[in-house]
Amino acid sequence: MKKIGIYGGTFDPVHHAHLILARDALETLGLDEVIFVPAAISPLKKTAPIASGELRLAMVRAAIKGEPKFAVDDCELRRPPPSYTIDTVEEIRQRNRNTAIYCLIGEDNAERLTNWHRFADLKKMVYLVVLDQTGQPPSHSYPVIDRKIDISATEIRKRVASGRSIRYLVPPAVEEIIRREKRRNYPLRETLPGATEITPENLATTCAELASNKKAENIVVLDLRGISTFTDFFVICSGTSEPQLKAIANELETRLREDHSVRPVAIDGFPASQWMVLDFLQVVVHIFHRDKRGFYSLEDLWGDAPRMHWEATAAH
Predict the structure, then answer these.
(1) Could you tell me which of 82, 87, 72, 88 has the C-alpha nearest to residue 49?
(2) Peptide bond preceding 243 in cis form (omega within 30 of 0)
(3) Count of Cβ atoms closer than 10 Å to residue 160 Cβ
C-alpha cells in the first residue's frame, strides 16, 4: 500500500527545519511522498500569515525543487479560509485511493489537536505524527519524530525586517525570493527633510568617498552592470582594525540615510569576522580587514568588471 505524508503549515517562510523534519519523516515512516500544504489561514491562529498565499506557495515550490519525493498542494489556498485539515485529507484521499495517509503535525499544535475541526473523524482517517524540533520530552502520546533544530519562521521574519542575513536558515532559492520581494516591498528610500536623490552609480562612488572619510584603504569600485544579476556595483575597501571596520560601516549607514534617505536592506558579518557587507541592492559594499581581503580576492573573482573612477572629498 502506498504511504504518503501530509505536512500542513503556514510556511511563512518555509525553512531548513521544515525540510529536515520532512526528510526524517519520509525515511522513518517509509513514506513514498511528503506533500507540503500551505494553509490559507489557520483557524486556531489569531493572525493571518505575513506573506501572501501565492508567495508562500512559490517559496515551498522553490525549496523542494529537485526532490522527487516532496510535493506541494495548493488545495487550502484555493479554498475559502479557514483551512481545516480534515477537508484537505478528504480531498487528497479522493485522489489517492488505497493509500495510508500520515498527518505530520508541528509540536506547537500537538496540545490543541482535540480542538481541531472534526477531530474525531480525522483521527480515524490518518496516522497522526508529531514533528518536534524543540528537543524537549513530549507531553502527549502521539508518535514523535524529533530533531532539535533552532530555526523558526518568526526569527527569520525578524531577521529580514532588521536587515540581518538569513543565509543557511532557508534554501538559497527561498532566500532569493525573499530578497526579490524585499526589493519590491521594502523601498530603500524613506522621506527625510533635506535629502537628495542619488543614482546607483553615484551611490557607489559616494560609498567610496564615505569610506575614504574613515581612512579606508585600497578602495575599489567595480561596475558589474551586464555581468552580475544581483547587483550593479561592488565597493570594496579595507581597514586595519575592528573599530575601523565598524566606523566605516557606521559612516556609510548614517550619512547615506541623512543625506540621501538611503538605507541598506541587509547588513551581514561583524567587525570581529573581519568582513562586513552592506547591501543597498544596486550597490553592495564589502569592508574587509586588511589581512582578510586577499583571502577572498573579490577583485580577481570579478576581474572582467571595469573599475570606476572616484575622487575623495573632504570629510564633513
Answers:
(1) 82
(2) no
(3) 22
- The 3-state DSSP class for residue 188 equals coil
Strands 70-72, 99-106: pairing kind: unpaired
Please, which residues bridge with residue 131 across strands?
Answer: 106, 145
Structure-model confidence comparison of residues 183 and 266, the more confident one: 266
- 120 exposed, middle or buried (CB, 10 Å; 0-12, 13-18, 19+)? exposed
Residues in CB range of 123: below 8 A, 6 or more apart: none
Please give the grid coordinates belonging to residue 18.
521544515
Q: Please, where are the H alpha helices in 214-297?
A: 242-260, 290-296
Query: What's the grid cell of residue 48?
Result: 493571518
Torsion of CA 165, 171, 175, 180, to 10 degrees: 170
Phi, psi (degrees; rounded to nearest 5) at 306: -65, 145
Domain parsing of the chain, residue ranges: 2-154, 200-301
Range 197-200 contact pairs with CB under 8 angstroms and sequence separation of 24 or more: 197/260, 198/260, 198/262, 200/232, 200/233, 200/282, 200/283
pLDDT given at position 196: 60
- CA distance linking residue 14 with residue 39, whole number of Å: 12
- How confident is the model over 182-198, as a mean pLDDT? 53
Tally the C-alpha atoms within 13 A of residue 249's C-alpha that lie toward its C-beta: 24
CATH architecture of 200-301: 2-Layer Sandwich (3.30)
Cα–Cα distance measured from residue 85 to residue 66, given in angstroms and rounded to the nearest whole number: 27
| 8 A C-beta contact, residue 47 and residue 118 | no
Cis peptide before 13 (omega within 30 of 0): yes
**Architecture of domain 2-154 in CATH?**
3-Layer(aba) Sandwich (3.40)
55-106 tens-digit pLDDT: 999 999 999 999 999 999 999 999 988 889 999 999 999 999 899 999 999 9
